[in-house]
Every structure is written in structure tokens, then in C-alpha cells.
Amino acid sequence: MPTGMITFMNSEIQSAYLAAEGFLEPLQKELDGVIAVHGRLILSSQPVKEAYWAQNIWRNLRTLHIDSINDAAKQLKAIQRNWCLYSYHLHRRAKLILEKLPPVKCTPLSFPSPLPTSPLGSFTLLDENTLLASAECSSPFPNGEVRFVEDKDGPPNRAYLKLYEALTLAGTQPQSGEFCIDVGGSPGGWTWVINQCGAEVLSIDRSPLSALVAGLKGVSFQKRDAFTLLPEEFQAQDRRIDWLFSDVICYPEKLYEWIRQWVESGICKNFICTIKFKGGPDLSIVDKFAAIPNSRVLHLFHNKNELTWSKISSLSSSDL
Ligand SMILES: C[S@@+](CC[C@H](N)C(=O)[O-])C[C@H]1O[C@@H](n2cnc3c(N)ncnc32)[C@H](O)[C@@H]1O
Prior knowledge:
With 320 residues, the chain is α/β, with parallel strands linked by helices. Helices cover 24% and strands 28% of the residues.
């Protein structure tokens, strides 16, 4: 057996996935070879895959035999400095191991902030003497939880946190001098974020923006059906669009058909859209979004029963 793999119920654990709170089921449906589910952590006998619904993916798993709490901490420290714990049982022993490790700073981020650069691993105790660890997690945040310093006065709702997170993960944001469209923009959380970034924003919705957001300099609003907005309108004015955002509540298929026209037109540089589901998600439509070149689909920490599709021009396919 290759080093670092553990036989667990006669199957080798090859990959592990942490689901977001309340979203274990869609993640489980996406994965093959599920060996065990521990709390929100799913262990699989299959090679790692970029599961849409995972909040954190544990790659290149190692299983460590530990003789004691000190030994566990020593072995983890020998791999790298920073670790976070996902604990589903043996909580006290797991916490004692964590306490022996160097502290990891996890203060809320002020938006905008760059992504943390220090690698952050994850570990859990499978039993008293067996630790499962990954030094190569998909998220640089502890258990994929991206927390921000909140603004209770500016935005009209909490949707702004979703865009904070999407832009932080993209490693870029709208700039002063750029032109953005925000469809399904009301009451205006996302429009508020774009305006805070210094970019001009046209917000589109069938309902009005909050008065506070509507009154911001650089924000304009059109009350209309988002799907009547097509690239030709802007091509006729020879107008480039730097960012197209959508948080419209609609069927994923409808969003896909609309967004495809925008992507194919080549008129817009960057896209961030939420794909919303009623009940269980249909993975075939999600796969269609993911197949759009240089794009990715993620379940953000701030997403509910929805995924976020993004296509960012500054990211090459190797960054995704
Ligand atoms: C989740 S809310 C958007 C919240 C917004 N992103 C924010 O930060 O405040 C979804 C919005 O989509 C709008 N909507 C739904 N269908 C629409 C359509 N066909 N055209 C325009 N807006 C639509 C709704 O009116 C609603 O305001």
C-alpha cells in the first residue's frame, strides 16, 4: 500500500471533503466511493475531484499513527506550521493536539484583503491513535469558513458577504473607471460592494434598490426583466463591460442560456453569478456552467442552496 494511505473498512481513503453546514447531501451525491461520513466530513476511496459542493477538499491525505497528544503535534509540525482541526468525535483529545500546535490567526478579513498565502492543513482523529491529515487543502481558510468584518450600516442586506467572498477568492475586484452590470441587484447588497470598490454600476431588477444604494454616486438603476438585457444593446453603443454580476432568482437553465450569449459575445471581461436551486441540484446543468472555458463553480461559505459560477479574465486555467 502506498505510504500515507489507510485501509478503513477494507477500502483505502484517497480523498476527503468537508461539506458546508446543511449541505452534506448534495456533496455526497457528487462523490463516488464514499467509505464513511463523519459529521460533515466525507471520506472516499476515489482520487480527489473538484467537487462543487465541498467547502474544503483535503488532497494528498496522510494517515499518521500517533502514540500520544505530543507525538501527534510533533508529527503535524514536522509537515508544516499551520493546521486547523475538524473534530467529529474524541473532541477533547483532538483539541489538546490542536493546543500543542502553533496558533493560527483567524481574525475576520477586512474587504478587500488578499488571500492568505501560508498553507493551512486540516486534520481529524479517526480513532485515538490514528490521525487523518491533509497539508494541501483547497481552501486557505479554516474549514473553508471565510469570515469578514461586517458592515451593519452600508449594505441593505447580508448578500454583500457572498460577493466579498467571491471577489476575495478571485483575488481581484472591480476598479475605479470600470463599468459593471449587476442583474437581480435589488435591494442592493452587491451593487453597494461594487460601488465601494470604486466602479460604475448599472443595477437591473424588477424591484427597486434601497433608497440608500440608489442614491450613491456611480450607481444607476433600470427596472426591467434581466433576461431582456442582451450584449447587442451595449455593442450598439460600442460599450465594453468589465464585470457582469447576477444574483437573479431563476432556473439554472435560464441563467445558462442567457449567460452563454454574453460569454460568446466577448463583450464582457469578468463574470460572477449565483446558480440557485429549488430542492436538490441538477448536476448536469452545473457541469455545463463549469465547462465554460476558464471558469469555475464553487459553493461559497456564504452560499445557501446555490453555487457560484465565476469567470475571471486575470485567472488562467492553472489558477482555477
Ligand atoms: C437574491 S435577490 C438579489 C439580492 C442582491 N444581489 C443584493 O445583494 O441585494 C434576487 C433578486 O432577483 C430579482 N429578480 C428575479 N427575477 C428577475 C428577473 N427576471 N429580472 C430582474 N430581476 C429579477 C428579484 O427581484 C430579487 O431582487
